[in-house]
Amino acid sequence: MLLFIAGIAYLVNSFALIVVPKIAALLFPAILLPPLVAETLLAVWMVAKGVNANGWNAAIARGRGEAQTPY
């Protein structure tokens, strides 16, 4: 949901830059706060969650046609 809001903020910022550049300069710091929060939280979550190594290795084995090892 946060990334959806961040995408909307990017669209509003781009639209404002085209239509009313003077107001866009005033909106810029406030309108880019949601993307900052959303992308920071996504990066932290990806670092904390990590990679499911067993699932990753199973997907590689399926791609090569090798036999799968049970978890």
Helices and strands, with pairings:
Elements: H1 2-19, H2 21-31, H3 33-49, H4 53-64
Helix pairs in contact: 1-2, 1-3
Can you walk me through this structure?
The chain has a domain at 2-46. The protein has 71 residues and is mainly alpha-helical. The chain is elongated. The longest helix is centred in the first third of the chain and has 18 residues, at 2-19. It starts with a helix and ends in a 7-residue tail after the last helix. It has helices at residues 2-19, 21-31, 33-49, 53-64. The chain contains 4 helices and no strands. 82% of the residues lie in helices and 0% in strands.
Protein traits:
elongated; mainly alpha; 82% helix; 4 helices; 71 residues
What is the averaged pLDDT score?
87
Taking the sheet with the most strands, its summary is: none
Query: How many DSSP H or I helices?
Result: 4
- Report Rg: 20 Å
What is the H-and-E element order? HHHH
Q: Based on Cα principal axes, name the global outline.
A: elongated
How far apart, in Å, are the first and last alpha carbons? 32 Å
Strand content: under 5%
- Counting helices, strands and paired strands, the structural category is mainly alpha
Number of strands: 0
The residue ranges in which pLDDT falls below 50 over 5 or more consecutive positions are none
Q: What fraction, in percent, of the residue positions are helical? A: over 70%
Quick summary:
It is built from 4 helices and no strands. The protein has 71 residues and is mainly alpha-helical.
